[in-house]
């Protein structure tokens, strides 16, 4: 693909050759700044409310207008990326995110600001649905977990430093400085993507299921606000409208020759199905914990926002430190073992939070958060590695998008559960220290529901099948092309496999497993090749 500005700026045509390391650099940069702006903006809510004259309910739409388009478009964008090119959509997502950040800086009223936030969510859906897919497609299977772990760690780094750095930026020049920093990251990535990501060989003749995408997006568009409006009548009506679209969507998918959701991914693929279900359960059980603990520490314990932020920071710091390690471990052992261990720690943490009282020592609160951080860190990277290993390379975009959709819908359900319980127990009372008994009671009820839900996630995580290991017996074509420019996370054994790759081709041009070769062919495999790149079936990387 040739980008318009490359004609005017020849140095952008790719003097650096794409590799797994350069892909990791670009995707990690996007992961960091998209997470950073989201977490930093939460600190800016009071300043936004003052400048745009927004009440508490309207301030909630600062977050909702970003999350909603991201949630409803993740799956369609993942499928579109598999058909039209992940590099194209990833580039377009970064460009939209950067341009809408400029619009946010220029906004002088709430209409333009909310419009830019909505479009920013659209760009974020293109970024989020492609990051893991791009990394998985260019990284050897034996090092996929490590690369995904580093990428996940950058998300947690953005979430961790966002509130702290955001507070500093706001004190210097207001909330617009957050977007100015984001614009810098966005411009850098927009310039690097054409140079550092490889070209893709796309298959023609597979149209995009626009009708299915529209029905799916409309159903989620009604579902997410509906859960937020519970237990009021509006919420039930929105959920009813969402559920009424499900049979229509399923009927359309069965009749479509090229459906949005490939039926082959659902038939007999327990790893794909149960990994998505476990992801939904995981986020549905833990996401509201930070929200509830914020209310507990400030309204019940009387701590300042700064002290509350420092206490809550302990969880994402552990997640940031642990994610690269667990991602690397998931390349050496079954990801479901690590992810299930994380669910065990998550269950124990939520169960301990169910016993919090107004007099619980803060050290125990921090201990519960650290335990939750360890559980989260053990779960996230191996779980992503598991779902990317459950599908073929052509479906990486859809797999990454389905994982993101389960994450966002789980988060929505978790917050809805917390809001319903608060509405039933706390009611219309102001969230002050006078309402502390009711707030603590509501918080304990939520954790008593979420702890068994997390325990169910242990079962679903252990029940999924093993990640396919057959693709690790053969070299990845991209890594063979990049054998002479390997980075640290491309293992030395890959080199010997690459030398043997042309000899292991069958008459049909497909690799054979070593167990299928005769003794004569096995001896030929042990002989180093003089120039394997000249073999007619050798992979060629388009720059």
Please bin the fraction of helical residues: over 70%
What's the domain count?
A: 4
Number of strands: 0
Q: What do we call the CATH topology of the largest domain? A: Growth Hormone, Chain: A
- Provide the residue-averaged pLDDT: 77
Describe the structure in your own words:
The chain is mainly α and 543 residues long. The chain folds into four domains: 1-200, Growth Hormone, Chain: A (Up-down Bundle), CATH 1.20.1250; 210-257; 261-466, MFS general substrate transporter like domains (Growth Hormone, Chain: A), CATH 1.20.1250; 471-484 and 494-530, no CATH class. The chain has helices spanning 20-43, 45-52, 56-84, 86-106, 110-138, 144-173, 176-196, 210-229, 233-255, 270-286, 288-300, 305-312, 314-329, 335-353, 362-388, 396-425, 436-463, 477-481, 493-500, 519-526. Helix 4 packs antiparallel against helix 5 (110-138) and helix 6 (144-173) packs antiparallel against helix 13 (314-329). The protein starts with 19 loop residues before the first helix and ends in a 17-residue tail after the last helix. Mean pLDDT is 77; it is low at 1-16, 469-517 and 530-543.
């Amino acid at each position: 693909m040739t980008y318009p500005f490359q004609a005017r700026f020849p140095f952008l045509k790719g003097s650096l050759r794409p590799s797994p390391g350069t892909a990791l650099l670009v995707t990690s940069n996007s992961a960091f700044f998209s997470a950073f702006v989201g977490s930093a903006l939460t600190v800016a809510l009071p300043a936004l409310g003052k400048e745009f004259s927004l009440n508490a309910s309207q301030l909630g739409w600062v977050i909702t207008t970003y999350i909603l388009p991201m949630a409803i478009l993740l799956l369609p964008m993942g499928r579109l990326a598999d058909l039209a090119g992940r590099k194209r959509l990833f580039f377009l997502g970064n460009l939209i995110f950067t341009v809408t950040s400029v619009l946010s800086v220029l906004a002088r009223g709430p209409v333009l600001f909310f419009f830019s936030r909505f479009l920013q969510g659209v760009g974020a859906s293109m970024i989020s649905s492609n990051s893991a897919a791009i990394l998985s497609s260019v990284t050897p299977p034996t090092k996929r977990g490590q690369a995904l772990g580093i990428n996940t760690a950058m998300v947690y780094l953005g979430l961790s430093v966002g509130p702290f750095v955001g507070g500093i930026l706001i004190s210097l020049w207001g909330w617009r400085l957050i977007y100015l920093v984001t614009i810098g990251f966005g411009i850098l990535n927009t310039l690097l993507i054409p140079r550092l990501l490889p070209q893709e060989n796309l298959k023609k003749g597979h149209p995009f299921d626009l009708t299915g995408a529209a029905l799916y997006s409309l159903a989620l568009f009604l579902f997410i606000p509906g859960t937020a409006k519970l237990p009021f009548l509006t919420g039930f009506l929105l959920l009813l409208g969402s559920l009424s679209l499900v049979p229509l969507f399923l009927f359309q998918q069965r009749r479509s020759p090229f459906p949005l959701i490939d039926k082959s991914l659902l038939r007999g693929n327990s790893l794909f199905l149960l990994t998505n279900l476990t992801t939904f359960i995981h986020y549905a059980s833990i996401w509201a914990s930070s929200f509830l603990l914020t209310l507990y520490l400030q309204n019940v314990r009387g701590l300042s926002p700064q002290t509350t932020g420092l206490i809550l920071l302990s969880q994402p710091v552990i997640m940031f430190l642990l994610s690269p390690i667990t991602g690397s471990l998931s390349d050496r052992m079954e990801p479901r073992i690590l992810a299930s261990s994380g669910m065990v720690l998550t269950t124990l943490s939520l169960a301990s939070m169910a016993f919090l009282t107004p007099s619980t020592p803060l050290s125990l609160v921090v201990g519960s958060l650290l335990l939750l951080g360890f559980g989260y860190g053990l779960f996230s990277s191996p779980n992503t590695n598991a779902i990317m290993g459950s599908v073929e390379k052509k479906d990486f975009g859809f797999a990454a998008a389905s994982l993101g959709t389960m994450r966002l819908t789980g988060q929505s359900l978790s917050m809805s559960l917390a809001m319903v319980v608060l509405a039933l127990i706390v009611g219309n009372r102001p969230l002050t220290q006078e309402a502390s008994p009711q707030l603590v009671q509501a918080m304990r009820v939520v954790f008593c529901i979420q702890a068994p839900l997390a325990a169910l996630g242990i079962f679903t995580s252990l029940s999924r099948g093993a990640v396919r290991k057959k693709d690790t017996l053969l070299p990845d074509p991209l890594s063979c092309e990049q054998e002479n420019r390997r980075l640290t996370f491309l293992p030395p054994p890959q080199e010997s496999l690459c030398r043997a790759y042309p000899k292991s081709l069958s008459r049909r041009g497909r690799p054979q497993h070593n167990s299928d070769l005769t003794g004569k062919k096995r001896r030929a495999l042990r002989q180093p090749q003089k120039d394997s790149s000249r073999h007619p079936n050798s992979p060629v990387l388009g720059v």
